[in-house]
Specification:
This protein is of the alpha+beta class and 171 residues long. The chain is built from nine helices and ten strands. 35% of the residues lie in helices and 25% in strands. The strands form three sheets. It has a five-stranded antiparallel β-sheet. Strands 1-3-2 form a three-stranded parallel β-sheet, covered by helices on one side. Strands 8-9 form a two-stranded antiparallel ribbon. The radius of gyration is 15 Å and the shape is globular.
Length: 171
């Protein structure tokens, strides 16, 4: 197996991501942590010529708790999620899921948003988050929309994400 020739673009904000997606559609994929994407490229599940990395968008990282619940940035890694005081203090189901998920090396790279957006049937976080009535925030240049997680998945590896939309957070 090998990773095919691809051009990697490093976006620094959401408008730049949107522009790169539009410029290279349909020959492009988003890169969050890469734990699923790289396997998909190596196994030829799909082939693309461009990958847009969101790794430099710090505003998509972090876990915040408030009176409305949790806000989890899509680029928050599983390790960061498990180490969050908010998760450790009040969300034991999420904490259990993060501790039982893959190996430490994968948890250090895998992102919450990628674990959800990939819609892999074996993903660890969606079942727990669905039971907790979570919703995701999808962003596009025309605005944001919130989708309940139980309405987000429409089949294995299929979601309601429209062309040009980016999963940016979980609530």
């Amino acid at each position: 197996m090998y990773v095919p020739d691809i051009e990697v673009h490093q976006a620094t904000d959401l408008p730049e991501v949107a522009g790169l997606l539009a410029a290279h559609v349909p020959n492009v994929r988003l890169l969050a942590g890469g734990t699923d994407l790289l396997v998909d490229l190596k196994t030829s599940r799909f082939a693309v010529g461009h990958v847009v990395s969101m790794d430099r968008i710090d505003s998509l990282r972090g876990v915040n708790a408030d009176v409305d619940g949790l806000h989890i940035g899509a680029m928050t890694t599983v390790t960061q999620l498990s180490k969050s005081p908010a998760i450790q203090d009040g969300y034991s189901a999420i904490l259990d899921a993060t501790h039982n998920m893959a190996a430490p090396q994968i948890r250090n790279m895998a992102t919450v948003g990628g674990n959800i957006a990939n819609a892999a049937p074996c993903a660890d976080l969606p079942p727990i988050l669905t039971v907790m009535n979570a919703c995701v925030t999808l962003w596009s240049p025309s605005g944001e929309r919130n989708v309940p997680l139980d309405a987000f998945f429409i089949g294995p590896r299929k979601t309601v994400i429209a062309d040009g939309e980016i999963l940016i957070a979980v609530h």
